[in-house]
Amino acid sequence: MFGFGTEYEGLAFWLPLVWAGLIAVAVAMYVIVDGFDLGVGILFKSAHNENWRDRMMFSVAPIWDGNETWLILGGGGLFAVFHIAYAVLMPALYVPIIMMLIALIFRGVAFEFRFKAERSKFLWDNAFFFGSLVATFSQGVVLGAFVQGFANDGRQFTGGTWDFLTPFSMLTGISLIFGYGLLGATWCVMKTTGELEIWARRMAIRFLVGTILAMALVSAWVPFLERQIEARWFSWPNIAFLAPIPLITAYTAYRLFRDLEEGRHYRPFFLAIGLFLLGYLGLGVSLFPYNVPPNLTVWHTANTVNSQLFALIGFGIAMPMTFAYTAYAYYVFRGKVAEEIQGGGYGYH
Predict the structure, then answer these.
(1) Which residues pair with 345 in a beta bridge?
(2) Is-contact 308 14, C-beta < 8 A?
(3) Vertex 28: Cα angle to 313 and 114 (nearest 5)
(4) Are 175 and 214 in contact (CB under 8 A)?
(5) Whole-number Å distance between alpha carbons of 184 and 304
């Protein structure tokens, strides 16, 4: 169905699909679990007082470093299995990726130093906020550049250093700030109490409005980037099969708004995750099977079958362990963050 010959039959056909699925899961997990703690950082400077900022940071402090394990899994899987894709994507996205990594370093340092700082606490507050903001914007720019596609000769990037910088990638960068802000606000609704929770609920509604507007703009723009994407969404019978995606997205957004208004604690966070997953699904529908748009598929960029099988052994061990660790960490630190200091630190209840 994709126009490939018999050389892509058997393992050579199915293994790249399996690996594309595994990497997609790792990236989705990173966006969800690191997205909300980046969102907490985006909200950080808006918090009304020091107690609020302490509680917001403590809600993510025990789990944030484990969240970024998924980024390593996704990037490592791309390098190990889709070497041509890695060779094209990295030079094309060198600037925003370096910006993201530097911002994540500043944010990580802020976690460790802020709890012990006194007079310099405002510096680490700024490092946490700006690190989260720049990392989020950089990830959004990477996403926009990926959707637009990359100039290549089939094996390496042939474009310029600043090709990633376009109006569309700027839009996706700003859009992701709204999206992560929504995740962070609904996380605070779920994990905090009192005035901080009420404030987080109001902020979640604001970021929800921004997220929906951003999703609408991006969705309207994407089909005009590539005729193939337009045909995939609007040709018959595709439009009949794909129409439920935007409809379910709209209903999820409405239900999220109602839950925030009605004072629910847990469901808004999971509905916000649902919005991200629906957007992720739409992206997959638009681009599959290309992992280097607009012309290189998962089969064009995959390593040899033996290399994929060998890497699959390690991934088959690492991925379930990461899932298990993630589930255990969130179980241990379940519940809401206490409002008062107890024994030199905050507790959960």
Answers:
(1) 342
(2) no
(3) 105
(4) yes
(5) 41
Q: DSSP label at 45?
A: T
User: What does the DSSP 8-state code read for residue 157?
Assistant: B
The CA-atom distances, in angstroms, between 182 and each of 127, 267, 268, 272 are 21, 13, 10, 7
What's the pTM?
A: 0.91
Q: What beta strand segments (E) does the chain contain? A: 290-292, 296-297
Contact indicator for 141, 96 with CB cutoff of 8 Å? yes
3-class DSSP state for residue 292? Answer: strand
Q: What are the structural domain ranges in the chain? A: 13-332
Token digits of residue 339: 């409002």
Partners of 348 in the β-ladder: 337
Contact predicate 135/67, CB 8 Å? no
Q: What is the DSSP string of 194-227?
A: HHHHHHHHHHHHHHHHHHHHHHHHHHHHGGGT-H
Q: Which two tokens stand for residue 218?
A: 């991006």
R_g of the chain computed on alpha carbons: 21
Residue with tokens 């376009």: 166
CA pair distance 269, 26, nearest whole angstrom:
20
Residues in the chain: 349
The pLDDT tens digits along the chain (349 residues) read 344 444 446 888 999 999 999 999 999 999 999 899 999 999 999 988 888 998 998 898 888 877 888 988 898 899 999 999 999 999 999 999 999 999 999 888 888 888 777 778 888 989 999 999 999 999 999 999 999 999 999 889 999 999 999 999 999 999 999 999 999 999 999 999 999 999 999 999 999 999 999 999 998 898 888 767 777 777 778 777 788 888 999 999 999 999 999 989 999 999 999 999 999 998 888 888 999 998 899 999 999 999 999 999 999 999 999 999 889 988 988 888 877 655 445 555 5
Yes or no: say if 81 and 311 are a contact pair by the CB < 8 Å rule: yes
